[in-house]
Each structure stands twice: as C-alpha cells, then as structure tokens.
C-alpha cells in the first residue's frame, strides 16, 4: 500500500497548481482521505478532507481557494490550489484512513510560493 504525491514545485503568487496523490496496492474500506500541509519548522496541519460520502471539509485558511476531489477509477486524490500566497508554502502530504483506523501517508510534495 503506497501513496505517491506529485504536482508541487515553485509557483508564483496567485498561481493555481494541482496536486495529485496516486494510490497503489490494496486499500480495504477507505473512510476518509485528505491533504495536510507542513511549513518549515511548523507542525503538520490538515488542509482538506473528503469522506467516503463525498463530504468535504476545508481549513479556514484555504476555504474558497482550494478544492479537494477524487477519482475512484484511477485511485487518485487531487487538491486544486488557487490564488496561492506565500503562506501556503510547505510540504503537502496526502493521507488516507481506513474504517479500521489505519493511517497511510504519502511522501509529501513541496509547494513553494514565491516571485
């Protein structure tokens, strides 16, 4: 079971990259998926989640700018980032949790917002 995140990089303020998280292996009973962000020397914090019902939840700092979605056929989770600001800089991690409470993490993808 692996999660492979991609799509990060150096982005200018106001940019709109999309992050992807491809899942491989056998996931049984995924309950919720999401993205976390960890700025340098700061804790990892939740950015957005999507439940098995499709219900989405966003951190206040990104609501209205970021959109989380998934493609079940491709086993891929997405995070569309818009109107990026320097404070959005950090390593973005994708995360899955099963109904049994097992957590899976991707390796992280760096997003740096700078002109």
What is the helix tally? Answer: 0
Average pLDDT taken over every residue: 94
Regions with little confidence, pLDDT below 50 for 5+ residues: none
The gyration radius over C-alpha positions equals 13 Å
Strand content: over 45%
End-to-end distance: 37 Å
* Main pleated-sheet profile: 7 strands, mixed
* Shape label: globular
What structural class do helix, strand and pairing data support?
mainly beta
Q: What letter string, H or E per element, gives the SSE order? A: EEEEEEEEEEE
Report the helical percentage. under 10%
Number of strands: 11
List the helices and strands and how they pair.
Blueprint: E1 2-6, E2 9-11, E3 18-24, E4 30-38, E5 45-51, E6 56-58, E7 67-71, E8 76-80, E9 90-98, E10 103-105, E11 109-113
Parallel strand pairs: 2-11
Antiparallel strand pairs: 1-3, 3-8, 4-5, 4-9, 5-6, 7-8, 9-10, 9-11
